[in-house]
């Protein structure tokens, strides 16, 4: 998988090794084996095959005490969100806990009372998620300091296996067959956008991310 945010690009390979991009070269990021890694205003976070959650601190990933998650996203406005492995419940970590965590204290995650298999946030226009039926949902706001949310809106028109939000609010998704779509006409007055537009690719795509005008697949 691959994730971009705050001008940084991180990825994991098939051997669960994490990397970051510098120029045109990939460099190993820490020494911990991770299946999922995410970068954003909240820093760099990841999960391993046992669904333990890690934060990148002082040059390596440090395991956190608290909730187990199969996917995390650090792209929000300081908060971190994630999905539990068994119940697929969405949880949120407040910005004060994400920034202040030094790998010692037990983290207090807050349930967002929604079942999702993939969830992602951006600093603008809220968060997006995919439920077990591949339906798309949007949350207009999540308050980083409290993790309170504005509720969920179903977004019709396409089913997705994963979705990502860019720093500027751009939204891209991947269907189960590997087709890529962009959500169009997203504005502050209509944060869920208006329609999906196909993005031509020369091959089926498994994962994508977007930042600073670049789409990574």
TrEMBL record:
* Molecular functions (GO terms): carbohydrate binding
Say if the entry is tagged with keyword Repressor.
no
Q: What UniProt keywords are attached to this protein's entry?
A: Lectin
SMART domains from the entry? Answer: TECPR
Family membership:
Belongs to the tectonin family.
Check the record and name the PANTHER family matching this protein: DYSFERLIN-RELATED, FISH-EGG LECTIN-LIKE ISOFORM X1-RELATED
What's this protein's name? Fish-egg lectin-like protein
């Amino acid at each position: 998988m691959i994730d971009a945010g705050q001008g940084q690009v991180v990825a994991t390979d098939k051997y669960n090794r994490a990397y970051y991009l510098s120029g045109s070269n990939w460099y190993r990021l820490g020494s911990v084996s991770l299946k999922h890694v995410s970068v954003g205003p909240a820093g760099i976070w990841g999960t391993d095959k046992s669904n333990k959650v890690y934060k990148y601190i002082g040059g390596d990933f440090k395991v956190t005490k608290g909730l187990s998650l199969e996917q995390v996203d650090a792209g929000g406005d300081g908060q971190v969100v994630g999905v539990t492995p068994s119940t697929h419940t969405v949880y949120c970590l407040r910005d004060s806990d994400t920034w202040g965590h030094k790998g010692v204290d037990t983290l207090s995650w807050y349930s967002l009372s929604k079942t999702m298999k993939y969830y992602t946030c951006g600093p603008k226009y809220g968060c997006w998620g995919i439920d077990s039926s591949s339906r798309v949902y949007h949350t207009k706001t999540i308050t980083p300091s409290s993790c309170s949310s504005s509720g969920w809106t179903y977004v019709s028109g396409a089913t997705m296996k994963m979705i990502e939000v860019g720093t500027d609010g751009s939204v891209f998704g991947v269907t189960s067959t590997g087709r890529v779509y962009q959500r169009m006409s997203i504005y502050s007055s209509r944060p869920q956008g208006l329609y999906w537009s196909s993005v031509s690719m020369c091959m089926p795509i498994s994962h994508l991310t977007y930042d600073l005008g670049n789409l990574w697949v």
